Amino acid sequence: MTWGDSALTLGVTFALLAGIMCGAFALPMRYLGRWSWENVWAIFILVSCVLMPLIIARDAAPGLLHILRSAPAGAVTAAILTGFAWGFGAIMFGQGVSAVGLSMANTLVLAISASLGSFLPMGILAPGKFRQPQGHAVVLGTLIGIAGIAFCGYAGILREKSQGGEKEKLRGDMVGSTRPIAVGLALCIGAGLLSAVLNIGYSIAQPVLGAAVHAGDSAFAGSSIIWLLMLTSGAVPNLCFCAYLMGKNGSWRKYSEPNGSILYGLTVLMGLLWGGDIFLYGFASPKIGRLGPAIAWPLKLIAGLITANVIGYFVGEWKLTRALDRRWMLAGLLVLLIAIGVLAWSTTLG
């Protein structure tokens, strides 16, 4: 394929757009401090993991039930189980953003997810590609991306030291509460490991997409069915945890507090951005080719990381830091741009 291929160009463009939405979705959390974390997360999950998947899958695939019956049972089961496992990672990510901030949480989570979520799908879908030019380019682009993420992570550690006791004042009206840095790091590492499971499960469940295409539907319809299975099963642990916290803290009462419309609006916006990111990725991946999940995933994550760090800078997460701290972050973002270029180039080698 070449860049003149409109499908390929669309695939890369939408993967990058999905990443921008992914990097921006948590921004409203900085302005939702009137609610408890569980109030925000429950609505976010309902919108992004229950309502959007149901609406999009039903619209894209009218023969949804027939496709599920004809799809291999193993692929359907894999989608449900990996989606359920990812759900615990989503909880950790939500807690991690509240604990350490938007830019650092995304840096740590995406670092792990980019590596596991790219290499393993290529090993599942086309292991022979590791010995071919396209596979070499994917590996190179992913390794460059991981190096850039490491630079960003180091910059985040320097930022933590520079801000010291002033960090709490820079949170704004962030929902949730700060945690010790060790706890925040542990939450983000767990979220990164389980975030990669989302793309691994999507790769294993590709026969569901094939069943949709065989039935005469589009590849997007097939990917929408996969996300329906994965996201609704992932919603279960999230909603159960939120219900537990609401019962324990009595925070369900906050939903009826006056002047809450802006809080509802921002939380729904979070869900639309993240859910839209997932379905844009599902649209982009098949257009890139057989290695779509291995190439589009790191493209999306790197674009998301750049977006999250740029947003973090402009909302003040880098105030009171040294020029050296910011130079490390800038170096990381430049390396990540190189990685995007290499991964985009790899799509033309298939």
Give a quick rundown of the structure.
The chain is 78% helix and 0% strand. It has 350 residues and is mainly α. Helix 1 packs antiparallel against helix 10, helix 4 packs across helix 9 and helix 6 packs antiparallel against helix 12.
Determine the mean pLDDT.
84
**Overall geometric form:** globular
The assembly state of the depicted protein chains is single chain
- Provide the β-strand percentage band: under 5%
Number of helices: 12
- State the major sheet: none
Are there runs of 5+ residues with pLDDT below 50, and where? Answer: none
Task: Compute the separation of the termini in Å.
Answer: 6 Å
Helical content (DSSP H or I, runs of 4+)? over 70%
β-strand number: 0
Radius of gyration: 20 Å
User: Helix and strand string, N-terminal first?
Assistant: HHHHHHHHHHHH
3D architecture notes:
- The chain has helices spanning 6-24, 37-60, 64-70, 73-100, 102-125, 133-163, 181-204, 206-214, 219-249, 261-288, 292-314, 323-346.
- By secondary structure, it is an all-alpha fold.
- The chain has one domain.
- Helix 1 (6-24) runs antiparallel to helix 10, helix 4 (73-100) crosses helix 9 and helix 10 (261-288) packs antiparallel against helix 11.
- The protein starts with 5 loop residues before the first helix and ends with a helix.
- The mean pLDDT is 84.
